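Example record for the data management plan.
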Amino acid sequence: MTVNFKNGDTVIMTMYVKKADVTAGKLSEVLYDPGVPVTDGKKFLGWTEAATYDLTTERLTIDGVRAAVETKLNNGITEGTVVNYQAIMVTSFELYYQDEHENTYKTENLLTVTNSATTTVDQNYTVQSASATTGFIGWVVKGTETPVYKNGDQITLTADTTLVPKLGQGKWFYFDESKVVVAFISPVSHQKSFAQ
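Corresponding structural encoding:
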């Protein structure tokens, strides 16, 4: 039996296995882990016989591959049988949440078989500023001002991404000269609260 280990269309290594290897207890010597070249941002999850895969595809370790090959050999194969094991390669993205002082306090790892990953923004935030009029508006990608993401919004990553809090200042407005009636406009909800 010919066993090809592949990464996409590229054959990493070809190994030849026969039933006598199983009988002699030498399968682990003949069928060994070929290793997979991993590029930046990629992660190897295992092997599959499927030509195409997704994140739910069953992943085989090299021991799992040996067990599958042994079963095929024990069940009988025809001359010239070729089995391909495809490397399950995924792209890994990190989503970082930082506070207003640029301290990272939450990291989310996203795996995908494509070049982008979509996730839901899901992180509450308490403003650390001493100012009572500073409010949390939402999350923005570090170095940008828009779009503003709120909890429940979808964000698509094509690279590692850092979200930072977008903060705003509320304003006090005085409605008469005696300053008896005042209103506070919140930066978060733009709602008015009145005091007398």
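Summary line stored alongside the record: The chain has three helices and twelve strands.
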